[in-house]
Write a structure and sequence with these properties.
1 helix, 64 residues, mainly alpha
Length: 64
């Protein structure tokens, strides 16, 4: 049985004031292109805000 040592986490980045802009949509590929763009945009923003939320949670834990 080994000895457990705490893992050092990197410092959280400063909070962003606004999400980064969406990439420009590519050329239209048919009638479903608008729907596909909407789905990809929602995943993009969901990932951004989820990462920001987890970063804020880790920063709050490290302050306590």
């Amino acid at each position: 049985q080994g000895v457990w040592e705490p893992v050092q986490r990197p410092a959280a980045p400063p909070p962003a004031t606004a999400p980064p802009p969406l990439p420009r949509p590519g050329p239209r590929a048919g009638a479903d292109a608008a729907g596909l763009h909407d789905v990809l945009a929602s995943w993009y923003y969901a990932g951004y805000y989820l990462g920001r939320y987890h970063g804020e949670q880790e920063a709050a834990e490290s302050k306590s």
